[in-house]
Design a protein that fits this description.
This protein is α+β, with helices and mostly antiparallel strands. It has two domains: about 1-35; about 35-145, Nucleic acid-binding proteins (OB fold (Dihydrolipoamide Acetyltransferase, E2P)), CATH 2.40.50. About 35% of the residues lie in helices and about 30% in strands. The chain has helices spanning about 5-35, 40-45, 130-145; strands at about 35-40, 55-60, 65-70, 70-75, 80-90, 100-105, 115-120. Strands 2-4-5-7-6 form a five-stranded mixed beta barrel. Strand 4 (about 70-75) and strand 5 form a beta hairpin. The longest helix is centred in the N-terminal third of the chain and has 30 residues, at about 5-35. The radius of gyration is 23 Å and the shape is elongated. The protein starts with a helix and ends with a helix.
Length: about 150
């Protein structure tokens, strides 16, 4: 038979196990819903995940938008590299060529990005901070390449 002290320790131990299990489940759910942001240059270099969803951001290349029924194909660029994107559904009203965009989806086997969601910037002055930083870095790298003798 267990003493009161042993019962108390057993109850505390069981409570800690339950808390650990709940924390583990919450962290697992959080990690599976975590979506990282990548630029076209990072995708080109192979830094983007192959089997899981991520976001790609940059500018919609002028003249690249093609529509077939409800499927839209366009190119996202960071002025250094380009990634072809396809999306089936309604594009946001603010989606236009030459403007910022963030698309969420996955790479297919051919390196083509299949978007499940497309987000357009909401006004002329806004671009997601990650996309703006990536565009600025790409512009600096491009400028550095053209300045070298």
């Amino acid at each position: 038979m267990m003493s009161k002290r042993q019962k108390r320790f057993a109850l505390i131990g069981a409570g800690l196990i339950v808390i650990a299990a709940v924390v583990g489940l919450v962290l697992n759910a959080f990690q599976s819903n975590l979506v990282f942001f990548f630029t076209p240059t990072q995708v080109f270099k192979g830094e983007a995940p192959k089997g899981s969803a991520f976001r790609i951001g940059g500018m919609v290349k002028d003249g690249s938008l093609v529509q077939h029924d409800m499927t839209h194909e366009f190119i996202v660029t960071d002025n250094e590299q380009e990634v072809a994107v396809s999306f089936t559904g309604l594009l946001p009203d603010l989606f236009k060529e030459g403007r910022g965009v963030v698309a969420q989806g996955r790479l297919d086997g051919a390196g083509h990005f299949v978007a499940s969601e497309v987000l357009a910037k909401h006004d002329e002055n806004y671009m997601p901070p990650e996309a703006k930083a990536a565009m600025d870095e790409a512009a600096m790298r491009k400028a550095a390449k053209t300045v070298r003798p």
